[in-house]
Specification:
2 copies of one chain form a homodimer. With 147 residues, chain A is an alpha+beta fold. Chain A has 4 helices and 7 strands; from the N terminus they run βααβββαβαββ. Chain A has helices at residues 11-24, 35-42, 94-108, 123-130, and strands at residues 2-5, 50-56, 59-71, 75-85, 113-119, 135-137, 140-146. Chain A has a 5-stranded mixed beta sheet, sandwiched between helices. In chain A, helix 3 links the parallel strand 4 and strand 5 (113-119). The longest helix of chain A is centred in the C-terminal third of the chain and has 15 residues, at 94-108. The mean pLDDT of chain A is 95. At the A-B interface, helix 1, helix 2, strand 3, strand 4 and helix 3 of A face helix 1, helix 2, strand 3, strand 4 and helix 3 of B.
Protein backbone atom coordinates (compact mmCIF):
# COMPACT_ATOMS: atom_id res chain seq x y z
CA UNK A 1 0.00 0.00 0.00
CA UNK A 2 1.24 3.43 -0.99
CA UNK A 3 -0.05 6.90 -0.05
CA UNK A 4 0.54 9.90 -2.32
CA UNK A 5 -1.05 13.17 -3.48
CA UNK A 6 -3.54 12.82 -6.34
CA UNK A 7 -2.70 13.87 -9.91
CA UNK A 8 -5.08 14.94 -12.72
CA UNK A 9 -4.85 11.44 -14.21
CA UNK A 10 -6.46 10.05 -11.05
CA UNK A 11 -9.71 12.00 -11.43
CA UNK A 12 -11.80 9.23 -13.07
CA UNK A 13 -10.93 6.85 -10.21
CA UNK A 14 -11.58 9.58 -7.60
CA UNK A 15 -14.99 10.17 -9.13
CA UNK A 16 -15.77 6.45 -8.92
CA UNK A 17 -14.98 6.54 -5.20
CA UNK A 18 -17.24 9.59 -4.76
CA UNK A 19 -20.08 7.66 -6.41
CA UNK A 20 -19.39 4.56 -4.31
CA UNK A 21 -19.73 6.66 -1.13
CA UNK A 22 -22.88 8.40 -2.41
CA UNK A 23 -24.49 4.98 -2.94
CA UNK A 24 -23.41 3.89 0.56
CA UNK A 25 -24.92 7.12 1.92
CA UNK A 26 -28.15 6.38 0.03
CA UNK A 27 -28.08 9.53 -2.07
CA UNK A 28 -26.47 8.85 -5.50
CA UNK A 29 -29.18 10.96 -7.18
CA UNK A 30 -27.84 14.02 -5.30
CA UNK A 31 -24.53 13.92 -7.17
CA UNK A 32 -24.50 16.61 -9.88
CA UNK A 33 -20.68 16.82 -9.90
CA UNK A 34 -18.79 15.36 -12.89
CA UNK A 35 -15.19 14.21 -13.54
CA UNK A 36 -14.72 17.29 -15.77
CA UNK A 37 -15.78 19.62 -12.93
CA UNK A 38 -13.53 17.76 -10.46
CA UNK A 39 -10.55 18.14 -12.79
CA UNK A 40 -11.13 21.88 -13.25
CA UNK A 41 -11.84 22.56 -9.56
CA UNK A 42 -9.04 20.55 -7.99
CA UNK A 43 -6.06 20.86 -10.29
CA UNK A 44 -5.90 24.43 -11.62
CA UNK A 45 -4.12 27.53 -10.30
CA UNK A 46 -6.36 27.89 -7.27
CA UNK A 47 -7.42 24.35 -6.39
CA UNK A 48 -10.56 24.15 -4.27
CA UNK A 49 -9.53 20.87 -2.67
CA UNK A 50 -6.66 18.41 -2.19
CA UNK A 51 -6.60 14.61 -2.26
CA UNK A 52 -4.39 11.95 -0.69
CA UNK A 53 -4.85 8.60 -2.44
CA UNK A 54 -4.13 5.06 -1.26
CA UNK A 55 -2.83 2.75 -3.99
CA UNK A 56 -2.72 -1.03 -3.89
CA UNK A 57 -2.38 -3.60 -6.66
CA UNK A 58 -1.74 -0.79 -9.17
CA UNK A 59 -5.04 0.97 -8.61
CA UNK A 60 -6.54 3.62 -6.33
CA UNK A 61 -8.44 1.90 -3.55
CA UNK A 62 -9.06 4.80 -1.19
CA UNK A 63 -8.82 8.55 -0.77
CA UNK A 64 -9.00 11.45 1.66
CA UNK A 65 -10.43 14.56 -0.03
CA UNK A 66 -10.04 17.73 2.01
CA UNK A 67 -9.95 21.51 1.84
CA UNK A 68 -9.47 24.41 4.20
CA UNK A 69 -12.20 26.20 6.10
CA UNK A 70 -12.29 29.18 8.41
CA UNK A 71 -13.86 29.03 11.83
CA UNK A 72 -14.51 32.43 13.39
CA UNK A 73 -14.09 30.65 16.73
CA UNK A 74 -10.96 28.60 15.99
CA UNK A 75 -9.22 29.99 12.86
CA UNK A 76 -7.90 27.88 9.96
CA UNK A 77 -9.27 24.33 9.88
CA UNK A 78 -8.74 21.38 7.62
CA UNK A 79 -12.09 19.92 6.59
CA UNK A 80 -12.20 16.26 5.62
CA UNK A 81 -14.91 16.10 2.99
CA UNK A 82 -14.63 12.41 2.09
CA UNK A 83 -12.68 9.51 3.59
CA UNK A 84 -13.35 6.51 1.37
CA UNK A 85 -11.91 3.01 1.09
CA UNK A 86 -13.40 0.88 -1.67
CA UNK A 87 -15.43 -2.00 -0.28
CA UNK A 88 -13.13 -4.89 -1.15
CA UNK A 89 -10.17 -3.21 0.61
CA UNK A 90 -11.87 -2.39 3.91
CA UNK A 91 -10.67 -3.82 7.21
CA UNK A 92 -6.99 -3.60 6.31
CA UNK A 93 -6.11 -0.32 8.04
CA UNK A 94 -6.26 1.82 4.90
CA UNK A 95 -8.83 4.20 6.38
CA UNK A 96 -6.65 4.73 9.45
CA UNK A 97 -3.56 5.34 7.28
CA UNK A 98 -5.46 7.92 5.22
CA UNK A 99 -6.92 9.61 8.29
CA UNK A 100 -3.49 9.79 9.95
CA UNK A 101 -1.98 11.27 6.77
CA UNK A 102 -4.78 13.87 6.75
CA UNK A 103 -4.01 14.86 10.34
CA UNK A 104 -0.37 15.29 9.30
CA UNK A 105 -1.46 17.48 6.37
CA UNK A 106 -3.49 19.64 8.76
CA UNK A 107 -0.42 20.13 10.96
CA UNK A 108 1.83 20.81 7.98
CA UNK A 109 -0.54 23.54 6.71
CA UNK A 110 -0.75 25.25 10.10
CA UNK A 111 -4.36 24.44 10.87
CA UNK A 112 -5.62 24.77 14.44
CA UNK A 113 -7.52 21.52 14.03
CA UNK A 114 -9.64 19.51 11.65
CA UNK A 115 -13.35 18.90 11.14
CA UNK A 116 -15.64 16.48 9.33
CA UNK A 117 -19.22 15.22 9.30
CA UNK A 118 -20.69 11.76 9.62
CA UNK A 119 -24.22 10.45 9.11
CA UNK A 120 -25.90 9.64 12.42
CA UNK A 121 -26.54 6.00 11.37
CA UNK A 122 -22.96 5.35 10.17
CA UNK A 123 -21.91 3.51 13.33
CA UNK A 124 -18.65 2.01 11.96
CA UNK A 125 -17.41 5.51 11.04
CA UNK A 126 -18.52 6.99 14.37
CA UNK A 127 -16.77 4.21 16.31
CA UNK A 128 -13.61 4.66 14.23
CA UNK A 129 -13.47 8.41 14.90
CA UNK A 130 -14.11 7.87 18.62
CA UNK A 131 -10.83 5.94 18.80
CA UNK A 132 -9.18 9.34 18.20
CA UNK A 133 -11.03 10.89 21.12
CA UNK A 134 -13.52 12.67 18.89
CA UNK A 135 -16.73 13.95 20.39
CA UNK A 136 -19.60 14.85 18.09
CA UNK A 137 -21.86 17.91 18.06
CA UNK A 138 -25.34 16.81 17.07
CA UNK A 139 -27.23 20.08 17.54
CA UNK A 140 -26.44 21.73 14.18
CA UNK A 141 -28.77 21.64 11.20
CA UNK A 142 -27.40 21.95 7.66
CA UNK A 143 -29.19 24.33 5.33
CA UNK A 144 -28.45 24.86 1.67
CA UNK A 145 -29.75 26.57 -1.46
CA UNK A 146 -28.99 25.11 -4.90
CA UNK A 147 -28.80 27.49 -7.85
CA UNK B 1 -27.71 51.52 5.76
CA UNK B 2 -24.77 50.70 3.52
CA UNK B 3 -23.33 47.31 2.48
CA UNK B 4 -19.67 46.96 1.45
CA UNK B 5 -16.73 44.55 1.57
CA UNK B 6 -14.74 44.60 4.81
CA UNK B 7 -11.30 46.22 5.07
CA UNK B 8 -8.46 45.42 7.51
CA UNK B 9 -9.48 48.43 9.63
CA UNK B 10 -12.82 46.72 10.30
CA UNK B 11 -11.33 43.68 12.04
CA UNK B 12 -11.79 44.83 15.65
CA UNK B 13 -15.51 45.45 14.99
CA UNK B 14 -15.83 42.12 13.14
CA UNK B 15 -14.29 40.35 16.12
CA UNK B 16 -16.79 42.04 18.45
CA UNK B 17 -19.63 40.67 16.30
CA UNK B 18 -18.08 37.17 16.42
CA UNK B 19 -18.00 37.38 20.21
CA UNK B 20 -21.59 38.67 20.34
CA UNK B 21 -22.75 35.64 18.33
CA UNK B 22 -20.69 33.24 20.44
CA UNK B 23 -22.41 34.56 23.56
CA UNK B 24 -25.83 34.20 21.86
CA UNK B 25 -24.87 30.62 20.93
CA UNK B 26 -23.88 29.96 24.57
CA UNK B 27 -20.27 29.10 23.81
CA UNK B 28 -18.03 32.18 24.23
CA UNK B 29 -15.39 30.03 25.98
CA UNK B 30 -14.93 28.09 22.72
CA UNK B 31 -13.51 31.14 20.93
CA UNK B 32 -9.73 30.86 20.66
CA UNK B 33 -9.56 33.13 17.60
CA UNK B 34 -8.15 36.64 18.05
CA UNK B 35 -8.34 39.92 16.06
CA UNK B 36 -4.66 39.42 15.09
CA UNK B 37 -5.40 35.97 13.64
CA UNK B 38 -8.48 37.29 11.81
CA UNK B 39 -6.42 40.08 10.25
CA UNK B 40 -3.73 37.66 9.04
CA UNK B 41 -6.17 35.01 7.79
CA UNK B 42 -8.65 37.23 5.96
CA UNK B 43 -6.61 40.04 4.43
CA UNK B 44 -3.36 38.62 3.08
CA UNK B 45 -2.42 37.20 -0.34
CA UNK B 46 -4.57 34.09 0.02
CA UNK B 47 -7.48 35.17 2.22
CA UNK B 48 -9.27 32.29 3.92
CA UNK B 49 -12.58 34.16 4.08
CA UNK B 50 -14.49 37.21 2.86
CA UNK B 51 -16.82 39.59 4.69
CA UNK B 52 -19.69 41.85 3.65
CA UNK B 53 -20.43 44.44 6.33
CA UNK B 54 -23.56 46.46 7.01
CA UNK B 55 -22.89 50.01 8.21
CA UNK B 56 -25.34 52.32 9.93
CA UNK B 57 -24.79 55.44 12.04
CA UNK B 58 -21.07 55.36 11.16
CA UNK B 59 -20.42 51.93 12.64
CA UNK B 60 -20.54 48.29 11.60
CA UNK B 61 -23.81 46.79 12.82
CA UNK B 62 -23.82 43.49 10.95
CA UNK B 63 -21.79 41.16 8.77
CA UNK B 64 -21.87 38.12 6.54
CA UNK B 65 -18.60 36.16 6.81
CA UNK B 66 -18.20 33.46 4.15
CA UNK B 67 -15.70 31.28 2.31
CA UNK B 68 -15.71 28.68 -0.42
CA UNK B 69 -16.10 24.95 0.08
CA UNK B 70 -16.01 21.97 -2.21
CA UNK B 71 -18.78 19.40 -2.28
CA UNK B 72 -17.86 16.17 -4.04
CA UNK B 73 -21.58 15.89 -4.82
CA UNK B 74 -22.26 19.48 -5.97
CA UNK B 75 -18.95 21.24 -6.76
CA UNK B 76 -18.02 24.77 -5.62
CA UNK B 77 -20.18 26.09 -2.79
CA UNK B 78 -20.28 29.33 -0.85
CA UNK B 79 -20.41 28.61 2.87
CA UNK B 80 -21.95 31.25 5.10
CA UNK B 81 -20.01 30.92 8.34
CA UNK B 82 -21.62 33.78 10.28
CA UNK B 83 -24.59 36.04 9.58
CA UNK B 84 -24.75 38.51 12.44
CA UNK B 85 -26.72 41.68 13.14
CA UNK B 86 -25.93 43.38 16.41
CA UNK B 87 -28.82 43.17 18.85
CA UNK B 88 -29.96 46.81 18.80
CA UNK B 89 -30.25 46.80 15.00
CA UNK B 90 -32.30 43.62 14.60
CA UNK B 91 -35.78 43.63 13.04
CA UNK B 92 -34.91 46.27 10.43
CA UNK B 93 -34.20 43.98 7.48
CA UNK B 94 -30.40 44.09 7.79
CA UNK B 95 -30.10 40.31 8.05
CA UNK B 96 -32.13 39.88 4.88
CA UNK B 97 -30.05 42.51 3.04
CA UNK B 98 -26.83 40.75 4.09
CA UNK B 99 -28.16 37.31 3.18
CA UNK B 100 -29.32 38.55 -0.23
CA UNK B 101 -25.92 40.13 -0.87
CA UNK B 102 -24.29 36.82 0.05
CA UNK B 103 -26.45 34.95 -2.45
CA UNK B 104 -25.36 37.49 -5.08
CA UNK B 105 -21.72 36.89 -4.15
CA UNK B 106 -22.23 33.12 -4.56
CA UNK B 107 -23.62 33.69 -8.06
CA UNK B 108 -20.85 36.14 -8.96
CA UNK B 109 -18.17 33.61 -7.94
CA UNK B 110 -19.74 30.78 -9.97
CA UNK B 111 -20.86 28.63 -7.06
CA UNK B 112 -23.43 25.90 -7.65
CA UNK B 113 -25.18 26.90 -4.44
CA UNK B 114 -24.60 27.96 -0.85
CA UNK B 115 -24.60 26.24 2.53
CA UNK B 116 -24.73 27.15 6.21
CA UNK B 117 -25.51 25.68 9.61
CA UNK B 118 -27.93 26.74 12.32
CA UNK B 119 -28.38 25.55 15.90
CA UNK B 120 -31.48 23.37 16.29
CA UNK B 121 -32.94 25.70 18.98
CA UNK B 122 -32.40 28.92 16.98
CA UNK B 123 -36.00 29.18 15.81
CA UNK B 124 -35.85 32.80 14.55
CA UNK B 125 -32.93 31.89 12.24
CA UNK B 126 -34.62 28.67 11.07
CA UNK B 127 -37.85 30.52 10.27
CA UNK B 128 -35.93 33.25 8.43
CA UNK B 129 -34.09 30.72 6.23
CA UNK B 130 -37.34 28.85 5.53
CA UNK B 131 -38.69 31.99 3.83
CA UNK B 132 -36.06 31.25 1.15
CA UNK B 133 -37.39 27.73 0.63
CA UNK B 134 -34.55 26.15 2.62
CA UNK B 135 -34.95 22.62 3.90
CA UNK B 136 -32.59 21.40 6.60
CA UNK B 137 -30.66 18.14 6.88
CA UNK B 138 -30.60 17.10 10.52
CA UNK B 139 -28.91 13.71 10.22
CA UNK B 140 -25.26 14.83 10.14
CA UNK B 141 -23.02 14.86 13.19
CA UNK B 142 -20.04 17.26 13.36
CA UNK B 143 -16.76 15.81 14.52
CA UNK B 144 -13.57 17.74 15.16
CA UNK B 145 -10.08 17.42 16.57
CA UNK B 146 -8.31 20.44 18.06
CA UNK B 147 -4.51 20.57 17.93
Amino acid sequence: MNLRKATPADVPQLYNLVMELAVYEKAPEQVSNTPEMMLRDGFGDNPLYGVIVAEADDKIVGMSLYYFRYSTWKGKRLYLEDLIVTESYRGKGLGKALFDATIEEAHRTHCTGMMWQVLDWNTPAIEFYKTYGTRFDTEWWNGHLDF
